[in-house]
Amino acid sequence: MDLSTPIKFVKGVGPRRAADLEGRGLTTAADLLTYAPFRYEDRSNIKPLGQLAPGEMATVLAEVHSLHAPQFHRRDLGMIEVIFQDSSSQRLTGKWFHAQYLKNVFLPGIRVSLFGKVEFDGYKGELTMLHPDYEILRDDDEEDEAGLHTGRIVPVYEAAGKTSTRVLRGVVKRIIDNLPEMPDALPEFIRRRLALPDLTTALKGLHFPSVDTDLRLLNNFRSPAQIRMIFEEFFWLETGISLKRRQARTEPGIRFELNERVREQIKKILPFKPTGAQKRVLGEIARDMSTETPMSRLLQGDVGSGKTIVAAQAAVIAVENGYQAALLAPTEILAAQHQVNLERVLAPLGYRIAPLMGSMTKKEKAVAKRALATGFAQIAIGTHALLEEDVEFDKLGLAIIDEQHRFGVMQRKSLQQKGVYPDVLVMTATPIPRTLALTIYGDLDVSIIDELPPGRQPIKTFHKTKLELEQVYSFILRQVQAGRQAYIVYAAIEESETQAVKAAQAAYQELSTVVFPQLKVGLLHGKLPSAEKDAVMDGFKRGEVQVLVSTTVIEVGVDVPNATVMVVENAERFGLAQIHQLRGRVGRGADQSYCVLVTDKLSDTGRERIRTLVESTDGFHIAEMDLRLRGPGEFLGTKQSGLPVFRIGNLLRDQEILELAREEARTFVEQPPSEELLEAALRFVREHWQRRYGLALIG
Ligand code: ADP
Ligand code: MG
Asked: All domains of the chain, ordered by start, with CATH?
């Protein structure tokens, strides 16, 4: 047997169990070794029957005295009672329900080991254990599993289909006992310096910790063996990321010049005085652009912090150097808005802008494509349509991706590939908690706008139940009568836009005719023809539409400073980061703005989530809470988000090990002790990256 042995060939597995295990992504012996127990039980407390105390968990070694199958008159519970004895005079009754098969197991005279909770049946005056874990003790049998399930610290695995923790324990034990000496891929100098056990020791300690291992450490995943396995998993991921970074650094990028003339042009487009943070961030971007290495930069800034103008400035640098810039946005509404804004700010420079959206006619698209391919247009703004194969650029020098979290890694890559090593700027308003930033965006440099433009008042957030809707509506009415505007957003269950559209349509009917007959109510959702969308959005921008009923299509980017009320219906169905984004649609002007979260009955976590939003307007804090309450997969939302799949490591629990692994991996890649070691690492990552983390090594 070796690590690559298919699981179905491991003794005791067979086709049915193999299918169960494959369902969990476990196909080889190696996979099973990294299937870490999620909990450990100390069953090493071995006691003679005479010393058992009711209430304690204990392991006993005893002999079957007799077996009974008591009959209950109403229904047959299949109850089995087995009386055990040892050399003390005390006896113990083990009870199992629905366990007729045990009649053939507990034959009188057989020696067993039992683990369970000791109880005292005062009525019968006997000690009992209900459904104790058991094993049959045999001295001669080769397949003896004695001392595996009892009498030690026992690993508890999550069952895979019908394959129980008990079966898994046996299978893992067999694999560990039969493995030849394994080569340890983790570089020895790192292992020694961090005092981590070698691979074989670590695997044994992970699955079958010795009796003297501290149970609290084990159950907190901090025994030396567990730390080593977690560290290793993170280490190879971070090594891969560092190698990617190093590779990217050697690519011949564009050296944009940043002379007086370019600086003048940048100043010309500024409609306002930039904040300190905007200036600093532009400085970081300009520095990247003026070096030969292609820029890979993530620009993070809370909603409304003013990322768009910074992106426009970067585009000016590219265009003034004779290159084109492309801006990719996740929705048509946002792309259209970017188009209007950029046309306005870039007007003094006379750039030609080509929009490219899915809803354009073939002819319109053809015109835009030609403009980009010939270099007639210097700026492209678009949605996914921009990524289509036949979209070509004359000289793409800067790719900007707005609301990056809505796109996958491959999409970023496909825009990038429309140029020759162009600079890449990705932007997001969903603050990415550090653990995730280190893993998914690990190959990007990060700039943060941590300051809002002056004069913004913090948004006031309230929680209301469905029963209080009347109040909410009269509040909207008062705001509108004071000249403001409002959004009312409807949620979908599980990403189904269709459902949300239905909810919004129904609400629109009622709101426009019954609730606010005197107001101009507009309806906006993703399924509207785009001319209609534009008309509604324009109406709202001009203030003609006073209340905008919508789905989350307005989630990102939309900028109407006169809107001061954001009502989110069924707020419990949204992610926190998403509501924070929605809330960012108001509070963009000088007036006090409000966000009202309307919910049904809430669960405990639900209440905690809403409270987080009511109490905080700090995007980073909210993102951390969201991550903690929902977990990384849900937090990122999309399958193609590029989040690696960890077997042992857990981003929420193991942040400090991740940080350590990253430090070590970076130093290792940048200053390897020898070229051979680095080569070996490169080979290891190439071979294991995809399988271990579900990631493609791109680029
Ligand atoms: P986001 O970072 O969410 O994309 P935007 O770029 O849309 O934010 O900017 C939000 C609003 O703030 C816009 O109306 C923009 O014109 C305005 N804005 C941005 N920077 C400044 C600034 N330095 N001073 C005044 N207003 C600004
Ligand atoms: Mg934006």
From this structure: 50-142 (2.40.50.140), 260-449 (3.40.50.300), 460-616 (3.40.50.300)
Instruction: Decide: 309 in ligand 1 pocket, CB within 6 A.
Output: yes
Q: Mean per-residue pLDDT for 211-226?
A: 94
Asked if pLDDT for residue 141 goes beyond 50, the answer is no
Could you tell me the distance, in angstroms and rounded to a whole number, from the CA of residue 394 to the centre of ligand 2? 27
What's the 586 CA to ligand 1 centre distance in angstroms? 12
Joined tokens for residue 544: 């003609």
Residue 618 tokens, joined = 């700090």
What pLDDT is attached to residue 132? Answer: 92
Separation of 296 CA from ligand 2 center, angstroms?
19
- Which position has the higher pLDDT, 681 or 630? 681
> Residue 699: is its pLDDT beyond 50?
no
Residue 433: what pLDDT? 75
Which ligand lies nearest to the CA atom of residue 431 in the structure? 1
Ligand 1 geometric centre to CA of 356 (Å): 24
- Does 263 score more than 90 pLDDT? yes
**CA-closest residue to ligand 1 atom 14:** 559
Query: If you average pLDDT over residues 152-174, what whole number do you get?
Result: 88
The protein residue whose alpha carbon is closest to atom 26 in ligand 1 is 453
Q: Whose CA is nearest to atom 9 of ligand 1?
A: 306
- Among 223-227, 273-277, 667-671, 693-697, where is mean pLDDT lowest? 693-697
Q: How far apart are the first and last CA of the chain?
A: 36
Which of 428, 559, 582, 588 gets mutated to test ligand 1 (max ligand atoms within 8 A of its CB)? 559
